[in-house]
Amino acid sequence: MNQEEHAYKTFQKMLKARMIPSVMLLYGPEDYLIQWATEELGKELIHPAAAAMDRTVFSEGNGSASELIAACETLPLFSERRLVIVEDCDLFAGKKSRQYGPDEQSQLSEYFLRMPDSVLLLFKGVGVDKRSGTFKAVREHGMALEFPPISGQILRGFIRKKLTVMGKNASPQAVGSLIERTGYGDKNSDYTLRHLMNDLTKAAAYSREDEITAADFQAVTASSLQSDSFQLLEAAFSGEKGQALKLFKNRMAGLLSSDADREVFQLIALLCAQLELILSAKERMEEGLSARDLPKVMGVHPYRLRKAMEAAGKRSTQTLSDRLAAAYHMEKEIKSGMMSADLAMELFIATM
Predict the structure, then answer these.
(1) pLDDT tens for residues 223-250?
(2) Looking at 208-318, which runs of residues are DSSP E strands?
(3) Could you give the CA distance from residue 105 to residue 99 in angstroms, rounded to a whole number?
(4) CATH for 152-220?
């Protein structure tokens, strides 16, 4: 599999070419895509009238190695192939597997080599040990696809396609605002495609027009911490310190003391990361690097870099360096107990 290609695209190509192996593993954090891929395989291989007979599902640790093999050896009745699904499977966890011991792992690894063409044995899991023998065996004799978050044009195309099915559309700017606001794809975010689908459904129901606007998305979604950090910096740098303070207060509203402390430190970490990004970009541009080449050289997504630079405006590298030092000092003051989080953030915002 091409490392640059997302499993979403690889799977679509495999399905279109009808190159479906006898054994597959679908894993990763995007369970929405894993479920989608499972349903697509079912549509491709199983006759609707024979689903109860030609489709077998093992879940919650059920299904020994011998039971899985027996199910695979049973011929389909009316479908193109028999589909055997093993959900929440830890077969590929190696020594950490609680469902399958070493002997069963070896038994299944050997069976992958001689599986009949009349079946698809489909494993679904969250995490795997890529060093395990079973993982190597399924990759060698079948296909293992990891489904991380999607991004870029694939994500935008996914959103447009789902909106079309709902009878709606949205401009690229509105879609961009939704992605930024929800924080989908951020490494520290637990917002997944399943959450995104829920928000698209809510926005489609909320909007009275065929085209969903950025305001519609804003009305039905909660902003991410990263989105708020961009907005806070932009408001403070532009002189709208009252708006920046309001963003901070809204973020903290209703949180318990322990949750509020954690949220503040996460916000400070993001503010520092944004300031570091802006400062590094400004310094590289002063050295002669063009704005067009910045994302590739810095290894940063162009959209994130553009939003960060917009937030900074025309601030000099010295001003940005001073603000970054102030952010680090603020974190130190809070952790040492010298100043409360609320007061430290208010002073930080006031001096930007």
Answers:
(1) 666 667 767 777 777 778 888 888 788 7
(2) 211-212
(3) 10
(4) 1.10.8
Task: Please state the domain extents for the chain.
Answer: 7-146, 152-220, 225-350
What CATH code is assigned to 225-350? 1.20.272.10
- pTM beyond 0.90, yes or no: no
For the domain bounded by 7-146, which CATH number is listed? 3.40.50.300
Amino acid letter for position 258: S
Tens of pLDDT along 109-126?
Answer: 999 999 999 999 999 986
Taking the C-alpha atoms of residue 241 and residue 351, their distance in angstroms, rounded to an integer, is 9
* Closest among 25, 245, 242, 286 to 141, alpha carbons compared: 25
* Cα dist from 296 to 53, 121, 152, 282, whole Å: 52, 41, 14, 15
Spatial contact of 238 and 199, defined as CB atoms under 8 Å apart:
no
Q: 253 exposed, middle or buried (CB, 10 Å; 0-12, 13-18, 19+)? A: exposed
DSSP count for the chain of H helices, then E strands: 17, 7
Q: 3-class SS at 144?
A: strand
CB 52 within 8 A of CB 23: no
CA 257 – CA 263 distance, rounded (Å): 10
